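REVIEWER CHECKLIST
Item 1: Sequence provided? yes
Item 2: Single chain? yes
Item 3: Sequence as submitted:
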Amino acid sequence: MPRAHLAEAVKSTPPMTMPSLRPGMIAIPRRTIVMIGMPGSGKSTIARKLASRLGAPFADADQRVEEAAGMTIEQIFHRLGEAEFRKAERRVIERLLRGPMQVLATGGGAFMDDETRDLIKQQGVAVWLKADLDMLVERCSRKNDRPLLKGGDPRQVLSRLMAEREPVYAEACVNVESTERPIDETVRLIIHALGRYATTLPPEQPRVVTSA
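Item 4: Structure as written out by the authors:
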């Protein structure tokens, strides 16, 4: 069966009707899927692939903030400070959540902001990509554009951030291990996890039917 895109497949699917879905199909919440997690966990790459798989728009919150500010994230941190960046980030995420269903990649600190976290919980579905420290250190060492990782040993900084952030990330609706497995496999695991989460929602909550 051809892959169903969102425009063709949106329908209300109460949990009790899910067993009648055609073979190879799965129902997921019709809400913006928000990828959260540590720097280097693969949020943008996996979110882009998931969006393509669902036939949904993809957005990167950091990129939208840069476009709105006319500065890079590093420049915003340097010139205005982290607090102002978080305010701009919150405005961007709020605007994106008000739009049609899409897949949204966020920066590692977005979900740590109380107001931003509440917005995501109320209007989206948070998916935590959980990665181990060794993989994060290896991936982050490839790039030098992460403000919070500058001026210190990456392993120590990431270890400290993980201790601070993971208890909060654990509030996400869905969590999936981010490993070196093929991206398509991680996307498949996310879709199945979203399907399981959909069964916990009230029957009136709208669903999207997609291929499993």
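Item 5: Key structural point noted by reviewer: The chain has a mean pLDDT of 87.
Item 6: Recommendation: ____
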